[in-house]
Q: What sequence folds into this?
């Protein structure tokens, strides 16, 4: 029954000591003290054993643990590479003589990485993972892991560093781990603003300007747009749509990162400088429909006229070669209906669209077949000339010449 017995002879008025040794258990969880119970019987009084008094000894309960952490990668270099996955582990080993209870492991996601997965709990607000095991027995160890992805922008970053905090049984300890960064930079091949490499950029009606960047040999690129050295925004396809005020000059720089490539250093970013010029509005014309006699020229005009604009006249709504320029334009002789289109330009920018003017030729009426007079008349008297059978809608003009000259009057007579 896990007991020890001694049979001893005790001299009259004498004393006998008996001793034994025990080894205290390694796990003293819930063992605040250790006590011993002994009983003594003698032949003269076998039914009334005596119990020596010896108070229990308090145990020395020690809560303690050691921490180990590591950052590992599957990349052949053994180092942190942009876009690659890292596994971060934290090991807690109970080196005390009581169980570790209500253990809380907290780990903020390391700088220059992005959380990927964990068996614990990820908290977005604090960008951290946590683990809360119920208990870690004496002598036992448990390992907790989570995964992160290395960010693309690793310029001037030499290592990824992690710090984990562990609280248990009133103790508070940290453990750290690091992994070196290997960072090969890349650069942007070309940058354009609205298809141009700089100079004047024509503002649209929405004041939008599209900056487009390209690179060569970069997988999964991420482009970074900087204004005055400060990151403005980033894009996976290299296209940035900006709303910019006309009349101002802008200088942007662009860098790029990608799989196994760090972001372009500031000194190597591609730069573009351009001035946003307000494009002229679509011109308005004096008349959108003009009628002229067959085989005569039509006069087309813009109203109002901006003296800073150049007005160009075309036979097509887009493209083509200008037939002429000016706020007023005289067409070729017209013998069939035709459309002319006018656009305004200034500072290398043209109006968003051309304005159409429709020119329609009118067939000339036949000459009157005969004219009556009120003759004969006396010398010095006025003669009255009248068109025989005048046509409705026709205006008759009277001249003193067979051709040319100035009309003497209008009317049937």
A:
């Amino acid at each position: 029954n896990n007991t020890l017995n001694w049979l001893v002879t005790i001299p009259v008025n004498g004393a006998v000591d008996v001793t034994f040794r025990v080894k205290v258990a390694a796990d003293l969880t819930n063992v605040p003290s250790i006590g011993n119970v002994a009983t003594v019987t003698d032949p003269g009084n076998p039914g009334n054993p005596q119990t020596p008094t010896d108070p229990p000894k308090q145990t020395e309960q020690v809560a303690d643990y050691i921490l180990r952490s590591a950052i590992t990668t599957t990349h052949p270099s053994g180092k942190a590479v942009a876009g690659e996955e890292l596994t971060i582990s934290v090991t807690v080993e109970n080196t005390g003589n009581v169980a570790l209870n209500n253990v809380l492991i907290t780990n903020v996601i390391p700088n220059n990485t992005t959380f990927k997965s964990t068996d614990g709990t990820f908290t977005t607000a604090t960008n951290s993972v946590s683990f809360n095991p119920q208990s870690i027995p004496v002598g036992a160890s448990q390992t907790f892991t989570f995964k992160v992805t290395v960010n693309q922008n690793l310029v001037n970053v030499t290592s990824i560093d992690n710090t984990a905090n562990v609280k248990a049984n009133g103790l508070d300890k940290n453990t750290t781990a690091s992994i070196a960064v290997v960072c090969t930079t890349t650069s942007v091949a070309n940058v354009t603003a609205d298809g141009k490499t700089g100079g004047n950029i024509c503002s649209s009606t929405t004041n939008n300007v599209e900056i487009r960047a390209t690179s060569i040999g970069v997988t999964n690129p991420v482009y970074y747009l900087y204004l005055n050295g400060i990151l403005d925004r980033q894009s996976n396809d290299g296209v940035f749509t900006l709303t910019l005020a006309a009349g101002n000059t802008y200088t942007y720089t662009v860098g790029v990162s990608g799989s196994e490539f760090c972001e372009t250093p500031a000194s190597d970013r591609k730069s573009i400088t351009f001035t946003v010029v307000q494009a002229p509005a679509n011109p308005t014309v004096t008349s959108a429909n003009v009628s002229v006699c067959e085989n005569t020229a039509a006069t087309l005009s813009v109203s109002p006229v901006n003296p800073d604009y150049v007005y160009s006249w075309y036979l097509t709504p887009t493209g083509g070669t200008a037939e002429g320029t000016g706020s007023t334009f005289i067409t070729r002789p017209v013998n069939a209906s035709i459309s002319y289109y006018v656009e305004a330009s200034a500072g290398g920018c043209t109006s968003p669209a051309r304005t159409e003017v429709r020119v329609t030729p009118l067939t000339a009426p036949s000459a009157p077949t005969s004219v009556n007079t009120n003759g004969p008349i006396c010398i010095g008297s006025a003669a009255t000339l009248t068109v025989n059978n005048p046509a409705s809608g026709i205006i008759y003009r009277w001249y003193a010449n067979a051709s040319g000259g100035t009309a003497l009057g209008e009317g049937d007579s």
Observations:
- DSSP finds no helices and 33 strands in the chain.
- Residues 194-278 form a domain with the Immunoglobulin-like fold (CATH 2.60.40.10).
- The chain has four domains: 65-180, 194-278, 289-362, 368-413.
